[in-house]
Backbone:
């Protein structure tokens, strides 16, 4: 556990340095975004802004200052929003976490159900699920978003067209986000189930006269759970970093849109904090899946 | 099954395309009527949702006076003077601004004005606020360059001494430079002033109720407002932010009641929608080409030739869907807040920036300049308006015996043309939109001064420089207008910048609300006061 924690810290430190280097080297100048209107872009004014935000300090000095503050829990102030970075994150996290949680429930429930159905029924059902999920993965999220908004938001008026705040608001974005993931999970589930069905212990169980339903639930599905849980974990972790398109399309103010905006305006403290948060969340989710594995599949414990 | 799914997808897509954006046609630029205000509101309104392009970075306009920040705070913070929807300026927190001599301004303050915490607006607050605005790195500090000192000279009197006369200062006091802040509140909050979760330090008809970072800003009518003649009909306004698509959808479905548009795209999409109305008003905003001194555009003859050859009517039509009009000068007509007729007459007589290309004349100029072969590089950031303009330049250049190429720069880097010389060294022309916040064209023409930071082409004329200085010192409107008209002639004769189209200010309103001004005063005038229910 201690070694895991140390590993996490080392990863975060290395990541923060890479992010800092990247934003330092990226083309464009934060000062043009800090200056406000074009009327203001006189050399004297720009120099005053540069001094105010320490933009002329050497690379390592700037990084050192940020790191020193970050260690004491101070993530700094956003360049674009004068607000504390921690406050900005706190205000936007619930939106993104809610969205990812909602989408995860959707893709896990429907993805696994579809996968099981395809594997158990086979034949036409199998073909339909495969075709459907192929279609779902091939449509980019922004197209899905546009279609859903136009149909259910503008034409039918069933759902709000923008903003967050309630499950109702989050439904269309969550569906959009879940659609691609649902396809992946149903495929993994189907594949794992099919493989399990071929195994010896299943054949033995079947020969001993157990009902097919019991076999599927107790042997096939349980055996297949390992890869399914791993995949669900990975997809959820990936989603935390991939909500940008959906947030933008639905006017949700979450971490994703905050990050894109921060990158575009060279708002370094915010970029750094959001990316580190995403890395940490990814590590946390994958670690959790690792810890869960032995509980699901006793064989993992032995190896 | 595959077929059925594909069909379902196709139907869904068709339904999507049948939304508000597809069924419109471009309006005729000639028929665009500009109004100062929308129809007067008839009744009270409990609440309204107003859309912005993006979340304001701060509500402290001294640290950043961006368009969105100003649009919100115009209702909350008051200035010593106030710009009206017809673009004229009248006294506000100062009941008088007198100039006993050209280098002195005496402000007499109203005695009944109070801040949102109930304390009176005092001369000390005014002096402190003006000094804050003038501070290094503050958004309005450039307005105070000519100011020698600011001091309290009576219980309700503040005197400003100038190093040299400044005819624009009254206008500046109607802008961010004239905001009066509650010294006690702002000092107490320090760095937190203007960030979410803190009160405002102003005296306006609305006060900041809540800023839920990331989701919305709510302002609420301040019932103890000092000016009893002002009666806001709308109780509270929630500001939310949305990109173009979400903005169009929100207004079309009634989820939002209004927005000032910064872009013409949504206006086109909303024009045919019965549920919303779009009104256009006076503006100072003009799309221009900023030339650099890198290549052939260094020669004024080439700049003039290009100005003659570019198809302004075509740009207005394809780049702005008809929601712009060909324009000959670098400042919109919204800046003509005085001597309007003189400005209009002078404008009508100007040559050199025709609506449709005058190729023969342009070709002659190119020949006189020695028919240079070096290609002109014109920048774009991939946005529709800029790309259309860049293509129009390429087309114009080709027709008069020059050659031109387009260079696409990432949107995040486009602003660096103003700050980074090495960026400018890569291009010859930068298309951009420009507006000034003061309704006086003299606020623009200092951009043509020798060595000015936006004079990239290296235009230098002692006569011009002298006249800018003189105009800035001329407090008599009629006399100043004469100087400005001469400056306009000199600026356009040499095409320091090449003016293309004027983009009117636009406000869109849902079917149930009306009232706010349509002209470009929403960044300084408390427009929400006029918003209310339709009769």
Residues:
């Amino acid at each position: 556990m201690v070694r895991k924690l140390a590993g996490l810290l080392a990863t975060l430190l290395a990541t923060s340095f890479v992010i800092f280097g990247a934003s330092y080297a990226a083309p464009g100048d934060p000062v043009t975004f800090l200056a406000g209107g074009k009327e203001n872009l006189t050399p004297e004014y720009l120099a005053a802004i540069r001094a105010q935000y320490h933009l002329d300090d050497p690379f390592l000095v700037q990084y050192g200052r940020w790191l020193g503050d970050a260690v004491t829990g101070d993530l700094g102030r956003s360049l674009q929003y004068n607000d504390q970075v921690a406050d900005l994150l706190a205000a936007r996290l619930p939106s993104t976490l809610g969205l990812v949680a909602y989408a995860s429930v959707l893709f896990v429930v429907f993805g696994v159900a579809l996968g099981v159905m395809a594997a158990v029924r086979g034949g036409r059902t199998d073909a339909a699920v495969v075709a459907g999920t192929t279609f779902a993965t091939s449509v980019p999220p922004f197209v899905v978003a546009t279609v859903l908004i136009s149909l259910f938001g503008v034409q039918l008026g069933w759902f709000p067209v923008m903003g967050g705040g309630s499950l109702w608001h989050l439904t269309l974005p969550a569906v959009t986000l879940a659609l691609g993931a649902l396809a992946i999970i149903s495929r993994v589930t189907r594949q794992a189930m099919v493989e399990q069905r071929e195994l010896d212990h299943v054949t033995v169980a079947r020969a001993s006269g157990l009902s097919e339903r019991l076999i599927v639930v107790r042997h096939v599905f349980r055996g297949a759970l390992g890869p399914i849980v791993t995949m669900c974990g990975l997809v959820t972790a990936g989603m935390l970093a991939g909500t940008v398109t959906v947030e933008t399309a639905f006017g949700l103010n979450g971490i994703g849109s905050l990050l894109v905006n921060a990158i575009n305006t060279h708002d370094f403290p915010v970029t750094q904090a959001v990316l580190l948060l995403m890395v940490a969340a990814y590590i946390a989710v994958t670690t959790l899946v690792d810890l869960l594995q032995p509980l699901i599949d006793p064989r993992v414990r032995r190896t | 099954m595959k077929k059925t799914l594909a069909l379902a997808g196709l139907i869904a897509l068709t339904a999507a395309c049948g939304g508000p954006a597809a069924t419109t046609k471009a309006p005729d630029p000639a028929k665009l009527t500009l109004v100062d205000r929308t129809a007067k509101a008839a009744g009270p309104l409990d609440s309204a949702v107003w859309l912005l392009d993006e979340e304001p970075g701060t509500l402290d306009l001294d640290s950043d006076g961006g368009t969105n920040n100003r649009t919100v705070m115009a209702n909350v913070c008051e200035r010593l003077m106030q710009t009206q929807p017809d673009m004229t300026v009248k006294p506000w927190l100062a009941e008088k601004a007198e100039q006993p001599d050209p280098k002195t301004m005496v402000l007499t303050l109203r005695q009944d004005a109070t801040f949102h915490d109930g304390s009176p607006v005092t001369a000390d607050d005014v002096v402190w606020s003006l000094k804050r605005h003038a501070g290094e790195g503050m958004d309005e500090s450039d307005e105070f360059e000519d100011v020698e000192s600011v001091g309290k000279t009576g219980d309700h009197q503040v005197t400003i001494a100038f190093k040299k006369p400044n005819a624009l200062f009254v206008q500046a006091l109607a802008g961010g430079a004239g905001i009066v802040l509650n010294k006690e509140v702002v000092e107490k909050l320090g760095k937190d002033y203007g960030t979410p979760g803190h009160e405002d330090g102003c005296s306006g008809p609305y006060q900041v109720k809540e800023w839920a970072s990331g989701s919305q800003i709510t302002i609420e009518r301040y019932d103890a407002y000092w000016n009893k003649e002002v009666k806001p009909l709308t109780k509270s306004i929630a500001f939310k932010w949305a990109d173009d698509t979400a903005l169009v959808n929100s207004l079309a479905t009634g989820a939002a009641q209004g927005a000032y548009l910064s872009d013409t795209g949504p206006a086109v999409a909303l024009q045919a929608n019965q549920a919303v109305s779009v009104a256009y008003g006076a503006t100072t905003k003009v799309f221009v080409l900023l030339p650099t001194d890198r290549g052939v555009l260094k020669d004024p003859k080439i700049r003039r030739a290009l100005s003659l050859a570019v198809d302004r009517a075509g740009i207005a039509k394809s780049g702005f869907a008809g929601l712009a009009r060909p324009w000959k000068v670098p400042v919109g007509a919204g800046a003509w807040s005085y001597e309007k007729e003189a400005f209009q007459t002078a404008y009508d007589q100007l040559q050199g920036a025709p609506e449709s290309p005058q190729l023969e004349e342009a070709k002659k100029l190119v020949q006189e300049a020695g028919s240079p072969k070096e290609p002109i590089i014109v920048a774009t950031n991939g946005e529709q308006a800029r790309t259309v303009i860049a293509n129009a330049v390429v087309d114009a250049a080709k027709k008069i015996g020059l050659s031109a190429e387009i260079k696409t720069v990432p949107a995040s880097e486009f602003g660096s043309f103003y700050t980074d010389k090495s960026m400018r060294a890569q291009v010859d022309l930068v298309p951009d939109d420009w507006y000034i916040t003061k309704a006086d064209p003299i606020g623009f023409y200092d951009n043509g001064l020798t060595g000015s930071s936006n004079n990239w082409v290296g235009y230098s004329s002692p006569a011009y420089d002298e006249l800018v200085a003189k105009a800035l010192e001329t407090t008599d409107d009629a006399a100043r207008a004469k100087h400005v008209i001469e400056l306009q002639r000199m600026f356009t004769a040499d095409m320091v910048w090449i003016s293309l189209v004027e983009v009117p200010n636009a406000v869109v309103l849902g079917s149930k609300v009306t009232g706010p001004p349509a002209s470009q005063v929403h960044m300084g005038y408390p427009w929400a006061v006029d918003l209310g229910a339709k009769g």
